[in-house]
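Consider this pair:
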Amino acid sequence: MTFPSVSIVIPLYNKAPYIARALDSVLAQTIQDFEIIIVDGGSTDESLDIVAHYTDHRIICFLQEGKGVSTARNQGVKRAQAELIAFLDADDEWLPEFLETIFRLREKFSKASVYATSWYRYDSRKDIRIKKTWGIKEGWEGIVPSVFKCAALDGVFPGYTSSTTIQKSAFVAVGGFRTDADMGEDLDLWGKLALCYSYAFSSQPLTIYHNTPNSLTKNPELRITDTYPFQKSIMSYSPEWLSAKVNYDDLLLYLDSLNLSTASNLIVSGEMKKARICLSNIQHGVLKERKMRLYLQTFIPLTLRSFISTVRKNCDIINFIYKYKMTFINK
């Protein structure tokens, strides 16, 4: 019995407009030695009907036991036959060379256990744009020198869920995705992996992240939290062990960046006092300017902030109309 080289885990819940695009992008890969594991969380739209139209034997679909995207991904990994695990959200897509590039990274950098590429971010209201990683030049690939520093200064780890693949053994060793968090469970996993394993990265963008209407990133009410899961996970490690494993200053910088993000969420929710307390815990000088900017926002009345936000949105619309008009004139 032979096993596939990579297992691709796709959590699915009411993604009828997008799931075919995601599956087609996998089936169009230049590397075809894979299995696709779809974990459905009880879709009530036509998502499962669309999946049923695919007759490829490599596509396996089963009903999720439990709730949440973390549970779905963990269950998908548990059923995976391959040692290499790739994740793809049902509303995202890969370019044809994605898996080929991941396999090249895996072969060239055998000491790594995490492999990722850059990506395109697409918003239907704006142009598609490349997500660049701090300190990494265009055309570069290799072992990321400091994963935590990149994550702190970019706001995200090198690669995101749909552009990252992991050795199954490493995934299991760090405990997989936390299922007790409403958000930040992906950051928790990437952080735990960065403590113990190396990241191999290609700056070539080979994934398209689609900012769809029901994405978590577009729903700020679901992103309000006083503590990120990784800030809890890190407490189980001693400072001595951490210092031996990673650049401790870069790790502290990343933890401070999570406090910045938390403060920003609290400001959005109107929790100004909590936001100021959170900001007071940030000590790293690199974040001083961003910290001060947020601190000043805590004294701006909610009505004024809403007005400023409306003006900014209107400016975006005006710029879009102007750009479209100039394109039409140039034609």
About this structure: The chain has a mean pLDDT of 88.
